[in-house]
Automatic annotation (TrEMBL):
Cofactor entry: Mg(2+)
Family affiliation: Belongs to the ITPK1 family.
Top-level lineage group: Eukaryota
EC number annotated for this UniProt entry: 2.7.1.134
Enzyme class, UniProt record, top EC level: transferase
Protein name, UniProt field: Inositol-tetrakisphosphate 1-kinase
UniProt domain ATP-grasp: residue ranges: 93-317
Organism phylogeny: Eukaryota, Viridiplantae, Streptophyta, Embryophyta, Tracheophyta
InterPro entries assigned: ATP-grasp (IPR011761), Inositol_tetrakis-P_1-kinase (IPR008656), InsP(3)kin_ATP-grasp (IPR040464), ITPK1_N (IPR041429)
Amino acid sequence: MRLEEEFSHCDEEEQPEMMSQCSIGALQQLQQKVVVVGYALTSKKIKSFLQPTFEGLARNKGILFVAIDQNKPLSDQGPFDIVLHKLTGKEWRQILEDYRQTHPEVTVLDPPDAIQHLHNRQSMLQCVSDMNLSNSYGKVAGLILPLVAKPLVADGSAKSHELSLAYDQYSLQKLEPPLVLQEFVNHGGVLFKVYIVGEAIKVVRRFSLPDVTKRELSKIKGVFRFPRVSCAAASADDADLDPSVAELPPRPLLERLAKELRRRLGLRLFNLDIIREHGTRDHFYVIDINYFPGYGKMPGYEHIFTDFFLSLVQSRSRNDRARNLLKA
């Protein structure tokens, strides 16, 4: 359609070479509007994220996904407008960092050094603690049994998602360090997954560990291990929940958390796991932060991401024009 509009500016009586020039100019303009997203993802992430409906919508909006060949130098590929990645390893991080230095015109989602903060649960949650929002999301001091034990390293592997529930202090000796300990808080068996894509925020409910009664605490001893609590099959959005449990965290709180964490972490693609202390309306706990989570499970992610990619390119274009004006 745009091509036909460009042709309408050419006089029908013009010479063929003039028509050729006009058509070439139209094609060049169309090519310039294509946003090329190079991706370096695991096969599992490709399957869950680059779904046919998403690729089709992106193509209709002028966004093209191109696989990055890890066996070739990154600088020899492209050109890219955006590089989307979720691979691990020091070698890959160095490749990306070098690429960022030599190709400042490309947006890398996200900087590898920034992602490293989320690979350690202690430094990850310290960012939230430093925000001093205890009146808004809960208290972090004075741990009381039972305790949730999570691996210190959060590298996206199956093992890093395992957690244990320790009901007594003697059972803590059975756990394998390094670990992060969190006080278990009754939360109605529901957690809130807060997905963040740039400035967009989307919240879904997921089933979580059930509440623990005082009677159970007096009788149960030892350690209970859970391979992975949050998964696609555990969606609670359509469940018949108590309204006090189902009520989403207040939007202003989520917006403040997202804004501050984007700034502190230097990331634009992540999610928060948040729980509400059962029996309260405003006691919330941030229990985990994940980089580039399973967005394929987020309703409407296709539209959110296409809008996000386009906004990144438009923002960079505006910034480039502003710099050129200053130089003129």
